[in-house]
What we know:
The chain is 78% helix and 0% strand. The protein is mainly α. The radius of gyration is 21 Å and the shape is globular. InterPro entries: H+-coupled_symporters, MFS, MFS_dom, MFS_trans_sf, Sugar_transporter_CS.
Amino acid sequence: MVAIMTGMRTDAPPARRPVRQLLAASVGNAVEWYDWYAYTFLATYIADQVFPESADNSLVPLLSTFAVFAVGFFMRPVGGLLMGAIADRRGRRSALTVTILLMGGSSLLVGLTPTYTAAGVLAPVVLVVARLLQGLSVGGEFAASTTFLVESAGPGRRGLFSSFQYVSTTAGQLVASGIATLLVDTLSEDRMNGWGWRIPFVFGAVLSLVGFWIRQGARETRSTEQQRAPRPALFEALRRHPRESLLICGITAGGTIAYYTWTSYLPTYAELNAGVAKSDALLAGTISLAFFGLLQPLGGMLSDRFGRRPLLLFFGVGFALLSVPMLHSLRDSFAVLLLVQCAGMVLLTGFTSISAAVNAEIFPPRVRAAGIGFPYSLTVALFGGTAPYVGTLFKDLGHSGLFPWYVAVLCLLSSLVYLRLPETAHKELER
C-alpha cells in the first residue's frame, strides 16, 4: 500500500543500482546545500540591502544577517524530526521529494526578498520566513539522504557511499562559491547590491526542479519487512533510544563547529580579522572546497578497511591541537589563507567522509531516519549554525582571539566520545 501511495518501485534491491541511487541522493543534496550556502557567501550584500545600518556600529547589519542564518538552523531539528518520521513511515524517497521542493520554494523567496528601503520591516520578516523553510528542508534532507545512502550500499561499502553525503554537499557549496566569486569579479558593487546577489537564489530554485526530476527514478531502500511493520510514533526514537540520541550529539558537536568554520565562515573570518580582500577570500574558499570534495571518497574507503574510530580521532585530536595555531596564523595573504583552509580540510575529512555511516549504524531501521535527524540537527543548530554569529560577535566585543579556542574545546570534547565509540564498520547493517 505504501509503495502504491508514494509511487515507489520496490521490485529490485537498491544495492543493484548503486550509480542511480548515488546520483538521486547526491544531485538533490547538492541542490539543497547550494541554496543553503549561497546565503552565507553573499551575507555581506544581504546585510546591506535587508537590514538597516546602525549609526554606532557598522557590524550590526552583518550580525543581523548571521543571526537569521542561525535562526534557520533552529528549524533543522524540526525538519529532521518531521521529515525523518516521513522517511520511516512512508519511505526515504518520499521524504527526499518533499525536501527538494521545499528548498526550491524557499530559495526563490530569498531571491525575491524586498530591500529594507522599499519595504521596511517586511524585508527582514520575508527573509526570516525563507530561512525557516530552508532550515526545515535541510534538516529533513540530512535525515533522509543519510539513511538512503547508507542503506543503498553493498557489503563493505557503507563508508564509501557515506562519503558522497559530503561530496554532494561540497559540490553544492562549490557551485555557490564559484557563482558568488564570478558575480563579485564581474559586476560592479552597485549592481551586486542592487540585483546581482539575487541571481544565485533564483538559479537555485531552477536547480531544485532538476533535483526533483532525478529523484523520481530512485528506488526505496526500506526493506519489505519494514514497509509492512506498524508505523513508528513521532518521538519513538528519542523515547526508546536515549543513549543513541546523546551519542549522536557528542559525535557531531566538534564536527559541526569545525565544518561550518572551515567551509562557510572562514572567508568572512579572514576578511574581518586578517584584512584579506573579499575576492581573494572567496577564491581561496572555492579552491579548498574542490580539494575537500576530492578527499571524501578516500576517507570513506579508508574507514571501510580500517574502521570508523581511527578517522574520527584523526579529525577530533587534530582540530583540538591545531585550530588555534591555524586560525591565529591568518594574515593578509591569499597563500596563507589557502594553506590554512586546505590543512583544515584534510583533518575535517576524518569526520565528514564517514559521519553518515556512523550515524546510520547507531540506530535500527525502524526509526533510523528520525533517530538520526533530530539529535544531529539540534547539535548542528547549537554549534554549527551559530558559528558565524559567535565568531563575528567575538570580533565585535574585541575578543576575536577566543573563537579558535572555542572550536578547539568542542573538538576535544567530541574526541573523548570517539575514544569510547564502539566500532561498527565491519558489522552487518540491519535493514
